[in-house]
Amino acid sequence: MKTNKTARLVQDKIRHQIELGILKPGSRIIETDIATEFKVSRSPVRAACDLLVEEGILTKIPYRGLIVNLPKITEKEFVDRLDVFELLMIQYFFYLERQLIELPVSTIDEQFEVLKEVKQSGDITDIIKRELLFFQVIVSSHKNIYYQKLLTTLLDELLNSDPLFYRQDSDRLSLVYFNYFTDIWESLKRKDYPKARRDVRLFINDAKLNVLDQQEIMAKYRN
User: Fold this and answer.
1) What is the pLDDT of residues 38-74, one digit of tens each?
2) Which of 19, 36, 68 is the endpoint of a domain?
3) Residues 153 and 215 in one domain
4) Which domain holds residue 54?
5) Three-class secondary structure of residue 66 per DSSP
6) How do residues 116-170 score in pLDDT, each as one tens digit?
7) Long-range pairs of 120-124 with CB within 8 A, sequence gap ≥ 24
8) pLDDT, tens digit, for every residue of 208-223?
9) Taking Cα atoms as reference points, which of 142, 146, 125, 143 lies closest to residue 67?
10) Environment class of residue 78 by beta-carbon count within 10 Å: exposed (0-12), middle (13-18) or buried (19+)?
11) Largest CA distance in the chain
12) Last residue in a domain, options 19, 44, 68
């Protein structure tokens, strides 16, 4: 019973660290490190991790061990985030155009070159990190800090989410829609704001179509 109680305490602590973002989606859980940090033996840590796997918070992957799962969201939640993101981005591009804002082109180009290199590695965690850094530099020209935070938080949720209807990592936004980031940035560099707005709409529409396609596939599978 003592071990069971300790396992539950460790389970709660690991879950809390995930909720706080200390343990990020895609990161590896090393039982010995957890045992050392919480000053317990490996046995309750192993039991706690098994419980978290049952909850769907962790996943056991062959040759990699325990991995923190991506947050799950429904189709509607995913589409709602896409709609808000599209609206805010289009408003932001209007803001850049009307206020004659100069973007930090050299800084954004540097981030984009790093992003292209990282994309070749296929490391999904690093790709997401670099996409967010790239995007944060783009929206940093808005004077409203809250607006910047809202945009980056939305994109973070979209890139890091694992919608319930997705079944393959290759369907992740961070990989499938990388070319849209390229198109949007090229349009912004040329100060072609109408095209940048069209690029955003294409990006969002494609994402929504992907949702519908996955829904049809899952409906056929269930039938």
Assistant:
1) 999 999 999 999 999 888 888 887 777 888 876 666 7
2) 68
3) yes
4) 1-68
5) strand
6) 888 777 666 677 778 778 888 888 888 888 888 888 888 877 776 655 444 344 4
7) 124/26, 124/169, 124/172, 124/174, 124/175
8) 887 766 555 444 444 4
9) 125
10) buried
11) 67
12) 68
One domain, residues 163 and 214: yes
Q: Is the pTM of this model over 0.90?
A: no
Do 179 and 83 sit in the same domain of this protein?
yes
First to last CA, the chain: 44
Contact 144, 172 (CB under 8 A): no
Average pLDDT over the chain reads 80
Query: Cβ neighbours of residue 16 under 8 Å, at least 6 residues apart?
Result: none
- CATH assignment of the domain containing 20: 1.10.10.10
Q: Are 154 and 207 in contact (CB under 8 A)?
A: no
Residues paired with 58 in a beta bridge: 68
